[in-house]
Amino acid sequence: MSYPGYPPQSGGYPPQAGGYPPQAGGYPPQAGGYPPQAGGYPQQAGGYPPQAGGYPPAAGGYPPAQGGYPPAQGGYPPAQGGYPPAQGGFPPQAGGYPGPAGGFPPQAGGYPAQPGQGGYPSMPPAGGGWGAAPGGYGPPGGAPQGYPGGPAPGQPMPNYPGAPATGPSNPAYGGGVPFNPQAPAMPRGYRGSIKDFPGADPLKDVEVLRKAMKGFGTDENAIIELLGNRSNKQRVPLVAAYKTTYGKDLIRDLKSELTGDFEDLCVAMLKTPAHFDASELREAIKGAGTDEACLIEILSSRSNAEIQEINRIYKSEYGKTLEDSISGDTSGHFRRLLVSLCQGNRDERPNVDISLAKQDAQKLYAAGENKVGTDESQFNAILCARSKPHLRAVFQEYQQMSGKEIEKSICREMSGNLESGMVAVVKCIKNTPAYFAERLHKSMKGAGTKDRTLIRVMVSRSEVDMLDIRQEYLKAYGKSLYTHISADTSGDYKKLLLKLCGSND
What we know:
By secondary structure, this protein is an all-alpha fold.
């Protein structure tokens, strides 16, 4: 449907005979419409738009050849250089921006341009893209301007932002600060092999255990299925629930019904982690010999909070501090190493300062490889006080500086228990699952099995990183941990160990 007078039949906008609205009436009326014929806004002689032409002009583009915008009698800009001039684009010939040699756009093309008259404005000009010369937006005759260079009309637009032509490699994040590939990875979720059993009820569980041990003979399979499918926080309450229900001690009943390594494994699984660690440290210290590897294993792999809880329980259970027990059973620099570790005061901040890591690496090099003799105190101070992420960066810097791994330097500079202890600390900090995979392998290789070590690692790591230990074991020794346990143990003891292992890889 067309509206009367819009657009007019013979001219621009508004219609020649009376503008908009139509002559016969409408809005506004003829005598005083918008714009009025005899006056008003704008005036007839030079108003907006002029009477002789409209928008667009009858003979060409925008603006009209004879007047345009603004009016010829004093508008903006002056009559000698309107916007844009009749013979060119933008800017005006007499003084606009930029000069007449390369206005915007060139006369030959525009977007869109009226045929033969130029146009408003040409974008992009026919001669090039946005900012291209000649004819671009910018100083005439200059270098191409703009960001980024664009294609000619009809071509796909460039990406934003414009990429360098040859794409130099990006600098490292952080302005060239060395990247530490050994920084801790993002958490990957739960890595234990034992999980909470849904709907576990301590009262029902102790009933199962009581039936398994009551009467003639013992149902070991029932004990294995129950203990092997409960997490530590579900197993530990069974001791109190058993005594509440039956008035008997669960640990004592298990010891009376079971024997050997299977008994030790079941009892270990009913202790909290801190109680179990405290009892293992006590066993490692008391008696004729000292299990130095056990002391290092526990003290180098536990967090500050865990070590402090171990100290509390040790003092409560055995009447003396762990530090006093260690001091009375060891000597020399090895004693200092253990005393430092049992304080539970290691820095645990996750951030790594590469410059400080380099300084510590230089201190270690100066204390060992780069001097006659060895400054064991410097090794002790750095290995026992710095955070584990920081020490991983230190070990990397040390290897780059000296061309040797820190463990090999320690072996060259130290001996005996101190050497074993320092190397164990380094290995545990470098890669904890790989360290425990090595501990498990050593416990089973050879003629006999070190069952105490095997039980301790399997129980203590089953809810921490057993899945990672299994991966490291397979990578290091070419067969799965599950397979090695199956070949090296037997009976009910083997069945429960395999429950802790999880599955075969």
